[in-house]
Amino acid sequence: MRTRTFALTAATSAACAAALLGPAALPATADVPVPDTPPDTAVADTAVGADLPVSADELLAEVRSCRQISRGKYRTDANRAKATVPVCGTTDAVFWKADMDIDCDGRRTKACNTKTDPYFQPQTAFTTSRGKPLDSARLPFVVVPAPGRIWDYRKSGLTGGSVVAVIHRGQVRYAVIGDTGPAAIIGEGSYALAEELSIDPHPTTGGAASGVTYIAFKDSRSSPIESRATAERRGEALARAFVGR
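^ thats the sequence. predicted structure below, dont judge the formating
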């Protein structure tokens, strides 16, 4: 009982003192520093990562296993007897892993002509928006096998101008489907595409013997087909969706 009386008396005295003398008579309370709240580093890292281009590792992780959609396999060269390369499919893309031979066909240029390439052809299966042959020395494009018994690219949602992510030694470049080749051979890209991937682009002595992955996105036509910038923008957007970013 005495304790409660004392507490009441002390509280009453403090109130009276404040009324008579004003707030200045009361002891000042010390400012208590509030520690800075550290940023959410995980969120920050995620935000930064979301702005980075899709990496080769991210894309390759999506094509580790093959659901074969081709009826058989392809050879990588005319003189190679054994067919070893299947075309594989996902919901959004088809892909294959092969070599890269150099396609120098199309518009006649200093780099691509009958002197530099004995097999030079002045046309490509697909043409520019003005109906002209593609320029293989300037436009990164991929060659797909002509429709045949093994596989028909058209039945997989692909056509001229479809966007393709091409991966080689940790590099990712975006190209379009620009030409067709022999119906039983796969693994070919334009002079310009080889240059982009640091592959020797010479049409007879260049190319890569293996280690090239081609991921062609279904229903992804880039227009106009001759625009590198459009293919790159579309490719990056399609790749982000493909890896689930």
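Confidence is low (pLDDT under 50) at residues 1-21, 23-30, 41-46.
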